[in-house]
Amino acid sequence: MRALVTGGRGFVGRWLAAHLEKEGDDVVATGEEVDVTDAAAVRRSFEEIRPDAVYHLAGWAAVGSSWADPPGVFAVNASGAVHVLDAARRLDAPPRVLIISSAEVYGRVQPDQLPLSEDLPASPVSPYASSKVAAEVAARQFAAGFDLGVVIARPFNHIGPGQGPGFVVSDLAKRIVEAERSGATTLAMGNPSPRRDLTDVRDVVRAYRLLVERGDAGETYNVCTGTDVLIGELAQRMIDLSGVDLTLSTGSVEMRPIDVPVLRGDATRLRRATGWEPEIPLDETLRDVLAFWRDAPPEA
């Protein structure tokens, strides 16, 4: 299978490309050289590559920074998805397309709505989440109106070695390693109260390939473990795993204007369609993230 991974040079893209190659796929990973906000450039790349499957990962990835530029995040995540879908449907042999959305589309849910299923209406509370809802709507329209084999993945928080700053686990690991090097005795973090459903990126990319193979066109699938972890407890867990003697200091890092209290998903639909199950324990992931930052140069 000839697979095109947009955003293939990013955190998830690198892990996905490696997994696809391991499975025997012929992988083309694009990065900044193909600007998804440029419809003509996207179409040219599709005509040149002629993929059998498209994994659309390119996009604005950080929830927090989306507040600074709502038009920018919509241009990349919403319009970019439309350009990818349109380029795919115009090929003589249209490929299967996986559109990557986000569990952030669920918004501020009530306890009795947990775990979150795909049938729950979207209620986005950030520019990032709103842009992902728009991309989902476009994907369903292309599936229904153009008979394009589009599948939508709604990953919950995914973590792992290689993730850059701006994401809670990676940021915590980076600060722990910096404290280890400097001899600091406190670990600064933002809001400790959200609860998040965390999946190792290496499990997530397995789910993505299975969805391209077995997912139903026009359907949406949660990618999650079904277990949520309190961020404050997660930080302490990482401190314990690191072996560094640190005291948590909360509220000293910038917080988002609106934060979603709890995200815990239901992956029943994904399991039924593909047989996928998460395989990597959380502590193993956290150790690998800490090891990544220990190996990174101090200025990274």
Q: Explain this structure to me?
A:
With 300 residues, the protein is an alpha/beta fold. It is 42% helix and 16% strand. It has helices at residues 11-22, 39-49, 70-89, 127-146, 168-182, 201-214, 231-242, 268-274, 282-295; strands at 2-6, 26-30, 53-56, 96-100, 150-155, 158-159, 186-189, 195-197, 199-200, 220-223, 228-230, 247-250, 262-263. The strands form 4 sheets. The protein has a 6-stranded parallel sheet, sandwiched between helices. A 3-stranded mixed sheet has the order 11-8-13. A two-stranded parallel ribbon has the order 6-9. Helix 2 (39-49) packs parallel to helix 3 (70-89) and helix 7 (231-242) packs across helix 9 (282-295).
Order of strands, main sheet, comes to 2-1-3-4-5-10
First and last CA, distance? 36 Å
Radius of gyration: 19 Å
Helix content range: 40-55%
Number of contiguous helices? 9
Which structural category do the helix and sheet elements fall into? alpha/beta
Residue share in β-strands: 15-25%
Order of helices and strands: EHEHEHEHEEHEEEHEEHEEHH
Q: Care to count the β-strands? A: 13
Q: Which word captures the global form? A: globular
Q: Indicate the mean pLDDT.
A: 94
Poorly predicted sequence stretches spanning 5 or more consecutive residues: none
Largest sheet descriptor: 6 strands, parallel
Task: Briefly summarize what is shown.
With 300 residues, this protein is of the alpha/beta class.
Describe how the helices and strands are arranged:
Blueprint: E1 2-6, H1 11-22, E2 26-30, H2 39-49, E3 53-56, H3 70-89, E4 96-100, H4 127-146, E5 150-155, E6 158-159, H5 168-182, E7 186-189, E8 195-197, E9 199-200, H6 201-214, E10 220-223, E11 228-230, H7 231-242, E12 247-250, E13 262-263, H8 268-274, H9 282-295
Parallel strand pairs: 1-2, 1-3, 3-4, 4-5, 5-10, 6-9, 7-12, 8-13
Antiparallel strand pairs: 8-11
